[in-house]
Amino acid sequence: MPLFNRKRSERRANTPGNPLSTKTLCPYCGVGCGLEVFPPARPGRKVTRDSEGKPIWQAVGNKAHPSSKGQVCIKGASVGESINKSRLEVPMMRETLDPPFRTVSWDEAFTRITQDIQKTIVNRGPNAICMYGSGQFQTEDYYTAQKLIKGCIGTNNFDANSRLCMSSAVAGYIQSFGSDGPPCCYDDLEATDCAFLIGTITAECHPIVFNRLKKHHKKKKDVKMIVVDPRRTETAKHADLHLAIKPGTDIALLNGIAYLLIRWNKHDPMFIDYCTDGFTEYAQVVNDYPPERVAELCGISEQEVRLAAKFWSRAQNVLSLWSMGVNQSTEGTAKVRTIINLHLMTGNIGRAGAGPFSLTGQPNAMGGREAGGLAHILPGYRLVKNPDHRQVVEKAWQLPPGSISPVPGLAAWDMMLALEREEVGVMWIAATNPAVSMPDIKRTQTALLKSPFTICQDAYYPTETAAYAHVVLPAAQWGEASGVMTNSERVVNYCPAFRDPVGQAKPDWAIFAEVGKRLGFEQQFGFADAAEVYDEFVQLTAGRLCDMSGLSHERLAKTGPIQWPAPEKPPPISLINGCIPTTSFRQKTAEPSLRPSISKGSPSHRMNASLW
Question: Where do the DSSP E strands lie in 462-516?
Answer without folding.
Answer: 471-474, 483-486, 491-495
